[in-house]
Recover the amino acids of this structure.
């Protein structure tokens, strides 16, 4: 049998054809530190392949798109049709995958000591056969970045423990661990399965865990929760913290991920945190203590060149919460000056700097193909309550920014959500009407309902937002596993769900050009 000392697992279920970045970052960091005996297992794609007939259809459309995408403008409409079909298949896969698992944090944790969900357990057991046929790894690392992955990650841990017992140690990390750590460490069932949790950045903690594994001294490993050797059922936090700063970012290592399945646009990240970091609804900034660390253009070009050399990649998707206008200007100038020909997309802050047509044309010249930003609402009252960066912009200024970006040849994705505490139906409808009245100024709309999450200011100061009760016993609302709550003003959560569904139906009817609307 082949020996693999450490294994990293990317769990199901994500209906996304974009490469993950968490494990490639970890693998790259570990290899740079001299840890090479790491095997990566992409169980998400392995799970995709079990979904019939969606998987064969997806691969059929993908092959067709791969053949035609460079055929020129004459067949561009065919490529757009095929891409639409690929998205449609992914959405159907997502519906089928998510419909087969529990969808609340308490139900997920309860499922660990029940014999329910046997179909999914049996499927996971079969998908783990490539791991089971090898020698027991010393450590299995499971990355949990999305809510959809929590159930499967814990199911994977259960199967690994049933196979190898105490001979295998399991560490879980990722954004969902950081978000839900308070719940996870209190579960007796989770305690039996997970030996370590890593919150926030995991590169250095995982390296130290691997290197210090033999002597079992975990007290000085940053960002780590480990089991109390003196008290059963209790996790101890190391008490120290680690942050991987942008200047220490490395070229991601996508070993273990099938290049023939994922899209040929590669994810990158060049900063840490959000440059604004003050939105009342955002839990992401809370994960980084509302601090921002901007990366340099020089480091960004170094990573891009590394990706080009290693993977031949020329398309990149910046996963940063938002890239600042000043950074975008410097990056685009450097790309053009160094004759680096790439296509790239980014999230931005809605800023007056984008009213400059020359700036937007230059961004396009550098390869920027699309941008996304959080409009959230057109209500000035709500924007101020949310503490959004663009809270002082009026509707005409927003229209102008959209028009200038669009005229520069850059595609625009607008993100909004409904149901922020105190929002009325009239205010929500004003946002909907604004979008419907300005359809030509953007290419995509993403609609969600508001999610109340830990670490967000609105959760920490509920009275400021007229919230009278938060049901903290469980997290079960929306795609992000958030809290139910009650307010004295505005729409209830039930009314918000109804309005959002109505808005989606209106958009699906209004967008006759097959613009993609994501809920």
């Amino acid at each position: 049998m082949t020996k693999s000392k450490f294994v990293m697992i990317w769990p199901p279920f994500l209906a996304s054809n974009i490469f993950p970045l968490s494990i490639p970052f970890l693998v790259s960091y570990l290899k740079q530190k001299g840890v090479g005996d790491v095997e990566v297992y992409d169980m998400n794609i392995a799970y995709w392949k079990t979904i019939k007939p969606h998987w064969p259809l997806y691969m059929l459309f993908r092959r067709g798109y791969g053949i035609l995408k460079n055929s020129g403008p004459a067949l561009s409409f065919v490529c757009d049709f095929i891409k639409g079909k690929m998205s449609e298949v992914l959405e159907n896969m997502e519906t089928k995958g998510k419909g087969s698992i529990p969808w609340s944090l308490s139900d997920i944790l309860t499922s660990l000591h029940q014999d329910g969900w046997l179909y999914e357990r049996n499927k996971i057991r079969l998908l783990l056969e490539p791991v089971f046929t090898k020698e027991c790894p010393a450590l299995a690392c499971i990355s949990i970045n999305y809510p959809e992955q929590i159930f499967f990650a814990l199911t994977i841990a259960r199967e690994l423990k049933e196979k190898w017992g105490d001979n295998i140690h399991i560490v879980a990390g990722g954004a969902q661990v950081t978000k839900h750590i308070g719940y996870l460490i209190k579960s007796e069932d989770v305690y039996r399965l997970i030996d370590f949790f890593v919150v926030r950045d995991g590169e250095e903690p995982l390296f130290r865990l691997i290197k210090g594994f033999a002597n079992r001294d975990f007290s000085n490993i940053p960002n780590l929760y480990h089991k109390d050797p003196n008290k059963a059922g209790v996790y101890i936090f190391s008490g120290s913290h680690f942050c991987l700063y942008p200047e220490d970012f490395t070229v991601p290592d996508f070993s273990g991920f099938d290049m023939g399945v994922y899209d040929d646009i590669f994810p990158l990240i060049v900063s840490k945190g959000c440059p604004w970091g003050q939105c009342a609804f955002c839990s992401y900034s809370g994960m980084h203590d509302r601090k921002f660390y901007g990366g340099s253009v020089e480091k960004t070009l170094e990573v891009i060149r590394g990706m080009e050399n290693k993977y031949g990649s020329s398309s990149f998707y910046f996963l940063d919460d938002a890239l600042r206008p000043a950074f975008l200007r410097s990056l685009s100038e450097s790309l053009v000056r160094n004759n680096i020909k790439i296509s790239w997309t980014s999230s931005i802050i809605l800023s007056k700097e984008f009213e400059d047509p020359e700036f937007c044309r230059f961004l396009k010249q550098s390869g920027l193909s699309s941008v996304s930003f959080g409009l959230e609402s057109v209500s000035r009252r709500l924007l101020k309550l949310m503490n959004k960066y663009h809270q002082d912009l009026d509707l005409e200024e927003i229209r102008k920014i959209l028009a200038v970006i669009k005229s520069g040849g850059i595609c625009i994705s607008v993100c909004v959500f409904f149901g922020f505490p105190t929002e009325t139906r009239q205010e929500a409808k004003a946002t909907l009407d604004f979008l419907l009245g300005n359809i030509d100024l953007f290419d995509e709309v993403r609609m969600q309902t508001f999610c109340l999450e830990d670490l967000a200011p609105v959760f920490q100061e509920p009275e400021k937002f007229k919230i009278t009760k938060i049901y903290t016993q469980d997290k079960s609302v929306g795609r992000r596993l958030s809290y139910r709550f009650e307010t004295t003003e505005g729409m209830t959560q039930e009314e918000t769900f109804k309005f959002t569904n109505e808005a989606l139906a209106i958009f699906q009817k209004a967008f006759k050009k097959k613009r993609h609307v994501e809920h």
About this structure: The domain at 6-52+101-237 is CATH 3.40.50 (Rossmann fold). Residues 514-519 have pLDDT under 50 and may be disordered. The chain has two domains: 6-52+101-237, 265-450. The two ends are 46 Å apart (CA to CA).
